[in-house]
Amino acid sequence: MKSLYTTSVTANGGRNGKVKSENGILELDVRSPKALGGKDDAFANPEMLFAAGYASCFGSALSLVIGKSKIEAGEPTVTAQVSLGQIENGGFGLAVEMDVNIPNVTIEEAQELTEKAHQVCPYSNATRNNIEVKLAVTNN
């Protein structure tokens, strides 16, 4: 792969620590959510950060695909729901449900555009055949 962009984020303290990007723009305390034994849900966590990255990346891929298709669509929105769970080998894995809304198109067009974006998106390509990603599409 020919790299087009590289960045780095450093984590200290794991799920109960801090993350900071190399340029200092991203600097957050992270904590385990209440469902995983944390005190509360008042902090960011790794799954939340993954969901933010995937949703925004998928949204960009979708905008690219819409632009190339010449279909007149409204501004799409993408919501990524990321779940953490235990897998068969005793380790942990992720699953994603991607809710995609593309207004002003038919449901068939929205489905086709979403599938094409799923082939283009770097997060989708990184996770393909590794974690379950469900796509739900609406057009309102």
Automatic annotation (TrEMBL):
It comes from the Bacteria. GO terms for biological process: response to oxidative stress. It holds the Pfam family OsmC. NCBIfam families: organ_hyd_perox (TIGR03561). Belongs to the OsmC/Ohr family. This is Ohr subfamily peroxiredoxin.
